[in-house]
Amino acid sequence: ETGATSTIDTNALSNPYDNAVSGLTATNVQDAIDEINASAGTVSLVPGANDGEFIFTDASGATTLISDTSISTIVDNGDGTYTYTDETGATTTIDTNALSNPYDNTVSMLTATNVQDAIDEINASAGTVSLVPGANDGEFIFTDASGATTLISDTSISTLVDNGDGTYTYTDETGATTTIDTNALSNPYDNTVSMLTATNVQDAIDEINASAGTVSLVPGANDGEFIFTDASGATTLISDTSISTLVDNGDGTYTYTDETGATTTIDTNALSNPYDNTVSMLTATNVQDAIDEINASAGTVSLVPGANDGEFIFTDASGATTLISDTSISTLVDNGDGTYTYTDETGATTTIDTNALSNPYDNTVSMLTATNVQDAIDEIAGTTGSNDSTNDAFVNNTTGNRVELGTQSDGTTTRTSGTEFVIEDSGDTGIGTENPDVRLTVADTQGELIRAVDDLGVQLDIESTVDDDILIEQSSNGSGAIILRNDGGENVEYIFTEQGRIQAKAYGENNADVQISNNPFENRQPEVGIASDANGNFIEVPTIFASGKAAAAGGGSIFNATVTRNSLGNYTVTLPVDIGTNYIIQLTVISRNGAGNDNANIWYINQTGTTFDVIVGDNDNGGSDTARFDSEFMFTVIRMPGF
Question: Taking each helix axis from N to C terminus, what angle separates 29-40 and 201-210, rounded to the nearest 10 degrees?
């Protein structure tokens, strides 16, 4: 039940052999068979591919596979059950779970018929008291009515010990012992058929060895039977009786029968599990009666630790107390230096260190150099000065209907103008003032500087008390608009609109827009020009939108436009955006110096919001049609205010 394992080795080499009678030198079954084989010719018996298998080869070279079925196994399934497989392959499941352990309710008058249900039923009548299986086999967790839990470890452990001489000692939970002997001398042999005189395997091998010759061994008619033929031709039937069994009787008991036919009964019923009442002073001497006795007094039940490790004090409904001593207790001891020592039920110890220096710290986010909590705190403390604290505290001023900073570090409550910090009951916050009238008011000793509200009027108002300038965020000019205004009035202000425009109000002209955008081409496209008069007032003036010196073949040095040659003396100027058709076009062409009593002439046609055509030719002063020719020319596009 502790998880300790024992290995039972049935290999021939591990089975001891007494050579006192045979005169062989071998001291184990394997060597004895080998020695007999050597004296019998080419006879051999060697281990097969699987555990318990042997291959017998007679003098003629014929081989026989012998399967030794005398192997039983018991496997821990990890869920409180064990699977026992006997030598015939038959399996039996042993269930140690509380739900599978039967419970006799004739005394307690409970309805439960197994330990699990009995405990649950007692718990239901005792309040929130419960006892449930713990994380490990043999552990139970007891919860009292207050919700406090106690871990109880079951010390009822059975053992199987290899004595090193071919025998094993099995000790059950009550301390009763059973010896399992695997020596050849202890394995009985039925000689009624073979007519050998031997009555055990040891003597049978000795007797066969004495008559070894043209020996053969073949399987018999039944499982576990073999027919042995000696040198004289006489045959002997060998029946293998070394089969043990474990039978579930269906009533909480199991019957184990060893190879000699001896039986042992294993009783898992609560009534059969002994209980030591010397300390608790209960009258019960087994688990069944102890549960019944506790159930009879169930009420305001409690289970608390006693004065010593492994002790618990049980208090029943009447107030009577019972001391329960459980020896299978783990301990956790506070060493007084930030460490704890945990000792499990086997005595193994583990130290748990809670000191800050031992607790790792992940510095990937903070970028501190420290890798443990101690160093991290020290590192932070190293960057914190003595002035990082204040005696100020927020107090509720019920008279002023606000929360404000209270007593200062010097004990006074009066604050210098500009150092106030209050939050009105309405939610308005004031910094540097005790009387905020909007969501946020910030002021210094000179007066109000910043006002912010959350309605559709003024959003953000920043005022300079030095030069009377005001910066206002105002939604009436579009969400996100910013106004820079002089205290003299709205006729002197600059509005930065959400659309990336600057509007200047001055000299009676409103909304004089200058467009600003992220497009480099558009950044060179002001809608109007802004200038100032002698009084410093803004005025709107025409602006040059595009200009250039075009080459005779098209292209050239061009600003904010492109020039394309269409045909002889025919060009198209293309603007980047549509600016309407009210712009001014100025054209000039290079002189021809009067050649042929003629000079160059230039004009535009087909004006649209994005293009116009330019024609270059002679001035036709002779009465004939104009003769066009390619020529360098210059152009300017001017935008007018208000168009």
Answer: 20
Return the SS3 of 35: helix
- Say which residues have a Cβ less than 8 Å from residue 526's Cβ, sequence separation at least 6: 514, 515, 543, 639
Residue 170 has pLDDT above 70, yes or no: yes
- In this predicted structure, the answer to whether residue 109 has a pLDDT above a threshold of 90 is no
Structure tokens at 53: 């298998």
pLDDT at 512 over 50: no
Under 8 Å CB-to-CB from 20, ≥6 apart: which residues? none
Q: What are phi and psi of 376, to 5 degrees?
A: -65, -45
Give me the residue label for tokens 């080459």.
551
Beta pairing class for 429-431 and 440-444: parallel
**Beta strands per DSSP E along 368-446:** 394-397, 402-405, 421-424, 429-431, 440-444
Q: Which two tokens stand for residue 384?
A: 């914190």
Residue 507, phi-psi category: left (phi > 0), alpha (psi -120 to 50), beta (remainder)? left
Q: What is d(CA 509, CA 492) in angstroms, rounded to the nearest whole number? A: 11
* 39 pLDDT tier (thresholds 50, 70, 90): low
Distance CA 57, CA 53 (A): 13
Q: Are 238 and 199 in contact (CB under 8 A)?
A: no
Residue 439: which of 452, 457, 449, 458 has the closest Cα?
452
Looking at residue 298, what DSSP letter applies? -
Q: How confident is the model at residue 169 (pLDDT cuts 50, 70, 90)?
A: confident
For all residues of the chain together, what is the average pLDDT? 75
Q: What is the mean pLDDT of residues 351-374?
A: 84
Is-contact 60 52, C-beta < 8 A? no
Residue 523: pLDDT band (50, 70, 90) is very low
In contact, 557 and 596? CB cutoff 8 Å: no
Whether 55 has a pLDDT exceeding 60, the answer reads yes
Residues 298 and 126: beta-carbon distance below 8 Å: yes
| Domain boundaries defined on the chain | 1-96+154-273, 394-537, 543-639
Structure tokens at 141: 């967790």
Q: How many CB atoms lie within 10 A of CB 256?
A: 19
For the chain, helix (H) and strand (E) counts, in that order, are 5, 46
> pTM value?
0.28
Q: How would DSSP label each residue in 499-545?
A: TSEEEEEETTEEEEEEE--S-TTGGG--SSEEEE-TTS-EEEE-EEE
Region class of 399: left (phi > 0), else alpha (psi between -120 and 50), else beta: alpha
